[in-house]
Structures are given as C-alpha cells and as structure tokens.
Amino acid sequence: MMAAVMALSNVSASSSYQLIEECDATHKSLYNFYAAVMIIIFIVALPLNASVMHLFIFKLKFWKSNTNNVFLFNLVLADILLLFCLPIKAHNFIMGERRSANEVVCKAMLFMLFLNRGASIAFLTVTSIDRYFNVVHPGRKNLLRALKKSPHISALIWLLLLPLTIPTMLKNFDCCNSHKSDAKDDTLIKGVVDSMREVVFFTQILIPFVILVYCTVHIINRLRKKTVGDRTKLKRAVFLVTSVMVVFSVCFLPCTVARVVLLVVRVQELSEVAQDKAAVAFDGLMVLSYMDCLLDPLVYCFCSTKFKALYVKNYFPFLSRGGAEPLDSSSGAPSQPPRNAVL
User: Fold this and answer.
1) Main-chain dihedrals φ then ψ at residue 336, nearest 5 degrees
2) Among 95, 228, 251, 302, who pairs with 292 as Cys (CB 3.0-4.6 Å)?
3) What's the number of CA atoms in the CB half-sphere (13 Å) around residue 42?
4) Using 50, 70 and 90 to split pLDDT, how confident is the model at 258?
C-alpha cells in the first residue's frame, strides 16, 4: 500500500488541491485500489468475525463465563459493526468521492467509524490490562477482575466513547480540513473544534498504545524472572500482548503519523502538491487501519488452544484430532474447568 501511495509523485496535481478540499478523489486509480482493499477486508473478515460471534453466543454463552469472554465478545461486536461501514466507504471511493455527498450519510458513517474503531481499541486495551493483572499480579484483587464478569463495564466503555465521537463529526473531518488556512473560516470556535477533533483522534490511539507497551514490558519481565512453574502459559501471554502490539503498530500508528504530517503540511501552508499527497496518503493509511477487523480474531481468539480446538471442531470437523480437551493457555493463570472457560 505504501508503494501505491508513493506513486503519487508521478501524478500531476494542477487541480488536485481544489478537488481534495471539496472531498473529491483526486487520483481515481489509487482510490479504486483503496476500495479494492476495503472490499477484500470485508469479504474475508465478515465471515471470520461472524463465526467467532456465533461461538461466543451459542457455544460459550459468554455472559455466564468466568473469564474475559465478555470483553472479547464486545471486541468482535465492534469489529463487525465497523465492517458494515466498509462497503459504503468503498462505494464512495469508486464513485470518485472521499466521503458521501449526502450529509446525513456522511455524519452517520463518521459516527460509526470512530465509535466502533474506538471500541475495538478500548476492548483490546482492557483485555491486555486484564492479562497483565493475571500474569504480573495473579493474587491481587482489582476492580477490573471483579467487574469483568458482568456486562456493566462493557456498557460503560461504549457509553464513554459516545461523546468522544461528536468532535469527529464536525467540519468535514473526513476530508482532512482541520486547521485549514482560510481567512473567512478563521474563527475561535473553528479553532477550538479543530483542536478538540485532533485531540480525540490522537489520544484514542496513543494512550492505549502506551498502556499496551507498559503491559507488554512487565509481562515479559515476569517471564524472565519465573524459574519454576508453567512457563508455557507465560510464554503464550507474552505472545498475546506482543501480537496486540504488532496489530497496533501495523494498523493504527501509520495513520497517526500520516495525520501528524498532514497537519504540519497544512499549518505551514506548504505547496498544493504536498498537501494533496499528504491527504491522499492519510486516506490510504486509514484504509490500512481497517485491517484491525481481520487481525483481532486471529490474535485474541485463535491464540487460545482451547478456543482454536472448539472453532475447528464446529467449523472444520474434518481437521479435528479428537482426544483430550486442550489446556487453556491464553493467560498466566491456572486453567479453568472445561465449562465456559475457553479464553
């Protein structure tokens, strides 16, 4: 995808700046490529997430579980809701639009995209924190461990995310017009709205990333210090948090860096060509961030040997080896009884 973005250097940008301000796709072939990527993500990720959700509801009965299945169910739910936005987004790109010309559709899309991507990041982070307490402080009581058995903390996360989506739906955020140099729009209110929007965008990614780094470092240190006991479970816990770090680094950090570059280019009022390239690159890296919907089930569901065995047994029975039930190795805590203790 980065190679495709770099191809912009060979494209004339004589009228690109005006078009991109009007939310038109300035490079049709490149935006068609973005649309194709989103369609592929949708086709592959939707049945994967739907099958995982089916197991959570009908096989595991996640609401009765004593583990973090409630968090993981909400993670899958957020990814599925986000996936339903991708065909609309792809259609806009194919039609030569960076967003829908219909204001209602545009605002609804922005609301869904930011709410559900924020929920996905939040539940990834909460699950990593839960893993951190299980491994680093296995005997310590904590509020998260007490609340994770009920849906209340999950509902609270969704409710807290709602007000954070409001600034992202103002002033055509999807067209990268924050801090645009325009005298007629240069007002205090616009500056405050632009700043709030950028704060929401960056904190939604950077704060969880810092938390993930902290949890990963401490879990790895715990593994190094452990000389006796079941090191296999600790190694799997390290694999889990490290995998989340990789997902974050691949899906979310590139678009964050692209957003910084775009803001710098706009604030410094560089050439129209530079602003055009920065905006189109940001769009492409936002498309890359949707890969999170495809990677989340692989990282947080299939890394558990017990869940993987259940998945294979239900959807690919011809691959099932049978025999004893595998141990739950998704955390550093001792394995639970077979009933509803998969993850």
Assistant:
1) -95, 165
2) 251
3) 18
4) very high
pTM: 0.80
Of 260 and 330, the one with more pLDDT: 260
CB contact at 8 A, 246 and 213: no
Let me know the angle formed at the C-alpha of 210 by 288 and 294, rounded to the nearest 5 degrees.
Answer: 30
In a 13 Å sphere around the CA of 55, the CA atoms on its Cβ side amount to 25
At residue 191, what is the residue type?
G
With respect to residue 334, please indicate whether it lies within any of the assigned structural domains.
Answer: no
Domain assignment of residue 157, yes or no: yes
Evaluate whether 176 touches 279 at the Cβ level (below 8 Å).
yes
| pLDDT tens digits along 266-310 | 888 777 788 888 889 999 999 999 999 988 887 766 667 778 888
- With 0-12 / 13-18 / 19 or more C-beta atoms within 10 angstroms meaning exposed / middle / buried, residue 239 is middle
Instruction: Determine the average pLDDT of the residues in 141-154.
Output: 64
Identity of the residue numbered 253:
L
pLDDT of residue 148: 57
Residue with tokens 């009022």: 269
The residue length of the chain stands at: 343
Secondary structure of residue 140 in the 3-state scheme = coil
Structural domain contains residue 186: no
Task: Give the dihedral of Cα atoms 140, 142, 145, 146; nearest 10 deg.
Answer: 120
pLDDT tens-place string over residues 244-257: 888 888 999 999 99
CA 120 to CA 114: how far, in whole Å?
Answer: 10
Provide the domain limits for residue 296. 16-176+193-316
Q: 24 has which bridge partners?
A: 97
233 within 8 A of 329, measured Cβ to Cβ: yes
Look up the CATH number of the domain holding residue 310: 1.20.1070.10
Q: How many domains does the chain have?
A: 1
Kindly give, in sequence order, each residue whose CB lies less than 8 Å from that of residue 95, ignoring residues fewer than 6 positions away.
none
List of residues 6+ apart from 335 with CB closer than 8 A: 327, 328, 329, 341
Q: What are phi and psi of 97, to 5 degrees?
A: -120, 140
Contact in structure between 339 and 63 (CB atoms under 8 Å) = no
| 313 or 185, greater pLDDT | 313
Rounded mean pLDDT, 136-162: 73
